[in-house]
Amino acid sequence: MKVLTDTHTLVWALTEPEKLGRAARRALDTSPFTASVANLGELVWKKRKPGALLSDPIPWWDRYVARSEIPTLALRVAHIEALAALPDYHQDPFDRILLAQAAAENLTLVSCDKQLAQYGVRVIW
């Protein structure tokens, strides 16, 4: 199984793994996992909002993702095509991009957001 992390999952996996669900932790420990440029985009977009995961995401990304050589999935045309086909169950644009990437790449999405499973993409937590 190959997995894609949602943004909370990525941050928690790399800095606070005790916050992960049991299945999420097992999947990340035993399967190759991928981050997405959408994760970085979300961290940057939300850095000044209440409850932001990180206040300075670019250095964090460099330290925990880039230097660790975690594969990072770029945004491609196939992902936008999959995004266009998604129903409007969920309004968070970053979650929708991650769902589209998971669908297009046949990846399991690791997320605590149970609502994302409505899209037919395999979601574990």
Please describe what this structure looks like.
The structure is a single chain. The protein is α/β, with parallel strands linked by helices. The protein has one domain: 5'-nuclease (Rossmann fold, 3-Layer(aba) Sandwich), CATH 3.40.50.1010. The chain contains six helices and five strands. A five-stranded parallel beta sheet has the order 3-2-1-4-5, sandwiched between helices. The chain is globular, with a radius of gyration of 14 Å.
Describe the structure in brief.
The protein is an alpha/beta fold and 125 residues long. The protein has six helices and five strands. It has helices spanning 7-15, 22-30, 37-45, 57-66, 77-85, 93-105, and strands at 3-5, 33-36, 72-73, 108-110, 123-124.
Number of helices: 6
Which structural class matches the secondary elements? Answer: alpha/beta
Number of domains: 1
Distance between the termini: 14 Å
Average pLDDT, rounded to a whole number, is: 96
The CATH class is identified as: Alpha Beta
The radius of gyration over CA amounts to 14 Å
CATH architecture: 3-Layer(aba) Sandwich
Identify the CATH homologous superfamily. Answer: 5'-nuclease
- Taking pLDDT < 50 over at least 5 consecutive residues as the criterion, the unreliable ranges are none
What do we call the CATH topology?
A: Rossmann fold
Strand order across the largest sheet: 3-2-1-4-5
The ordered string of helix (H) and strand (E) elements is EHHEHHEHHEE
How would you sum up the major sheet? Answer: 5 strands, parallel
- What level of helicity do the residues show? 40-55%
Shape: globular
